[in-house]
Amino acid sequence: MQEFAVPEARRWVRPLCWSAVLLDGFDLVVLGTITPVLLSGKVFGYTPETAAAVATVGLVGMMLGALLIGTVTDLIGRRRALLVVVASFSMFTLLCAFAPSAGALGLLRFLAGLGLGGCLPTAITLVTEYSTRGRNGAPTTLIMTGYHVGAVLTALLGILVIPTLGWRAMFVIGAAPALVLLPLMFRYLPESPVFKADRPGLEPVKSLLRSGYRRPTIAFWITSFMGLLLVYGLNTWLPQIMREAGYPLGAALSLLLVLNAGAIVGLLVAGRIADKLPMRPVTRAWFAGATITLALLSVRLPGPLLYVVVLLAGCFVFAAQVLVYAYVGRIYAAENRATGLGWTAGVGRLGAIAGPAVGGALLSAGLAFPWGFYVFALVGLFGAIAVSLVEGTSVRLPGDRRTADRLGETGSARRAERA
């Protein structure tokens, strides 16, 4: 990774990528805001099973989109790919407002998910390649705050919009920002200088499992699976698990807000630390922090201490996953960086699907408290172990003119990484 003296271009990269990721955050919450309305009104004959199916096919679309578009980004360029995915998911999000049936809504959510899945790895790749070498931690985590800001804004919009304009208006509002964002991106979003400078024409997916990359690739996939299992499992079931523990409904819901507030704080702090210390021990420490705080939640804590622990859990759980993305951006070269991010995010989406299922199974079995937190803590421990297996190894792909320094192979970097 290199530092490029292009201040005019760099000035636009972060805000435009942040805005694109904010729309991704809208998608995280919008279905949750409209589902109670669809269920209570028996819209489309909606049942809990229907709601679960629609949510799942959307996640499957995001998984496939991350795998496909992450790979395509290394072939057609970051700028073009990001323009395509923002246009795509915005169009299908708008069409959701006119869905005539639950089946049509599910199909449109799947198609929107394809674009949404490709948005995150493409945006992070572009931001990484406009960052100073070895200093992409803070930019990556800053971009991901857009995800959580989008989620919070969508929840607030749901409170204001749905009672007056109905659930369909949420999808119109979610698609509308593209009318402003796409022209700005077309006019000001630059292509990555790394992509323009070095295009050797290799097959990027195969390169992920070449000698030297194989071990980091598999370790990243496992870590991302564990990280997204925690993110989606806790966001889905934390209020209900706390209800099972005997906390009142108001407290259980407020804890979910505290969890996501902790996420924003954790992202800002983790990125800065990761830019000053070796990435592997920082990421491992964040997963370890998630393990400890989740284990603490298995004990009934007094009010103020409970909120502090949940805030810390949010700091560690959400930022740990984003540090994985930042770490991926440092390990892979320009030729396969977006592919590496896409496949890491795509495989991680399996964890996003598994997280709600694991929590639901524990609730159905009457084991949500305290065993739910034991299980989630164990997942965090597995994430810490998996990321410990990542090593920067000396790999030179065909046409790669840069040194192995990007993998931490030069003296001081290598010693620091193993310290």
Automatic annotation (TrEMBL):
Its main location: membrane. GO terms for cellular component: plasma membrane. It is a multi-pass membrane protein. Residues 13-395 form the Major facilitator superfamily (MFS) profile domain. InterPro entries: MFS, MFS_dom, MFS_trans_sf. It is found in: Cell membrane. The chain crosses the membrane at residues 12-39, 51-69, 81-101, 107-128, 140-163, 169-189, 218-238, 250-270, 282-299, 305-328, 340-365, 371-392. It holds the Pfam family MFS_1. It comes from the Bacteria. Keywords: Membrane, Transmembrane, Transmembrane helix. GO terms for molecular function: carboxylic acid transmembrane transporter activity. Gene3D superfamilies: MFS general substrate transporter like domains. This is Putative MFS family arabinose efflux permease.
